[in-house]
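Sorry to interrupt, but I need a hand with the structure work. Can you supply me with one protein entry, sequence and fold together? No commentary is needed, just the two lines. Leave the record below and I will have a look.
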Amino acid sequence: MVKTHVVIAAAIVLACAGAAAAQPYALKAPIATKPAFLTTVGQSADIEMVKVLLDRSAVPYKANAQAKAGDLAASGAKTLVVVLGGSTKGLGAAGISADAEIERAKALFAEAKKLGMTVIGVHVGGEARRGQLSDTFIKAAVPACQYLVVVADGDKDGFFTKLAGAAIPMDKVERMSKAVEPLQKAFK
């Protein structure tokens, strides 16, 4: 009798562990086409981390942190991936003001829409890459996105959830390395 209870308990634990390992994603089917064009909205150094994630996801891409709208058509990319997060250091190094960065982003999004590109927003910096400056860029970018991948602690306050609403599917991952799978699933 005790053996039977132990076997049943072990089976329940294994079933629960298996269910926990298979994360259900908000994005139910791929929406993006390869190759991608990678840029940042806010000049965050997190673009370097997203390059690694795209490499691991086997998504070919071209990257330019300071891309202009005209760069999109010439790239041949079908999807625009934007890294969301501001950096005063990055803006300074790029020689661009926050207002000019927002205008650059708006022009990029308008051109992406004109070209029929899918836009994916990625926030991997978590809580450390949030704050007034980052939030300004995030607010400007999220409405242009068709999908978001966000490190969960960057949405502790529900900021991304509120911006995405019901219209933009968003997948939250526990840490940056876990963003590989939802990125892979986003591309056809």
